[in-house]
Amino acid sequence: MEKLVSSWNNVQTVPEKYIFPPEKRPGNVTFNASKSIPVIDLEAIAISQDRDATIQKILKAGQDYGFFQVINHGVAEDLMNDTMSVFKEFFELPEEDKTSFYCEDAMRNNHCMLYTSSLLYATEDVHLWRDNLRNSCHPLEECIQHWPEKPTRYRHVVGAYATEVKKLSATILELLCEGLGLESGHFGGKLSEIPSLLVNHYPPCPDPSLTLGVSEHCDPNLITILQQDSYVFGLQVLKNGEWIGVEPISNAFVVNMGYQMQIISNSKLRSVEHRAVTNSEKARTSVAMFFIPNGDSIVEPAKALVDPRNPAIYRSFQYKEFISHFMNKTGGIDVALEPFKL
């Protein structure tokens, strides 16, 4: 527990183990939120003509940025606010109320796990300035029985939240199916079977120019749906070689494409590098829900998107092969996809 950043972050300087190499440091992190990342109103999908236009906006965002935000998405604002409050309350609990969830063993398959930096803490060269709370959500009815009982409303609120965000993911995946010309439900079943909820908690940092909350990466899964802290900036996306900030919008979700979406769409949609910077004055909390293929599921470019003029870019594989490579890879981001290209 003493390794949690939140247990010792009231320091004057960044400890050496958290200082990134010069070429990886964010440098001056004066945060300029970009207005260019699309914000898409899902209320419009109820009307046929507006639905088509909305789908095209989603596809273009997935092609140009790999990211977009959604509003009027059907998840109640009160539920979003309550969920964020519950997670912030959890991190403020006394140590004795959190100890049973703390884990340093990356191989343990806990239904709820509190850890710091990453699951590779023991072997990583540089630590991330964050604490993490991971909640397994599949099957939800079973997992929820192992979640924290403090705060007292934790299970009720987070369970309802996981259910509603899963419904939202199904809506977004169906819109992507329509836009790509795939059969309804193509992304359902095994390809998005395993939802996992990760809370990132970034305590204030004495020098945000030296460290990162999350280093640059692409998500290995299908899609990710993220709720940002409404009042603290931090998420950045790489666009044309520059890091641009994703504006926190109240009652909005950030949606990003994972590597599996890029592969299945035959690179019509892109998984894009992103990172999180820290803040010297305020803590920041974000809630990410990952939609992950079953390990035995077959991932490959959708046959409807492959023809002699558009040959497959990637080979067929089981997701467990991909995630094993992803977790053990060394080198840059491009290394993740290289073994799966034709």
From TrEMBL:
Which source organism does the UniProt entry give?
Answer: Populus tomentosa (Chinese white poplar)
Coiled-coil zones: none
Q: Does the keyword Metal-binding apply?
A: yes
Query: Does the keyword section mention Transport?
Result: no
Q: What is this protein called?
A: Fe2OG dioxygenase domain-containing protein
As for family, the record states:
Belongs to the iron/ascorbate-dependent oxidoreductase family.
Residue ranges of domain Fe2OG dioxygenase in the record: 193-293
Give the required cofactors: L-ascorbate
Under InterPro entries, the record lists:
DIOX_N (IPR026992), IPNS-like_FE2OG_OXY (IPR044861), Oxoglu/Fe-dep_dioxygenase_dom (IPR005123), Plant_2OG-oxidoreductases (IPR050295)
- List the molecular function annotations (GO) for this entry: dioxygenase activity; L-ascorbic acid binding; metal ion binding
User: Which GO BP terms sit in this record?
Assistant: defense response to oomycetes
* Catalytic activity from the UniProt record: salicylate + NADH + O2 + H(+) = 2,3-dihydroxybenzoate + NAD(+) + H2O
Family annotation (Pfam families): 2OG-FeII_Oxy, DIOX_N
Question: Which keywords belong to this entry?
Answer: Dioxygenase, Iron, Metal-binding, Oxidoreductase, Vitamin C
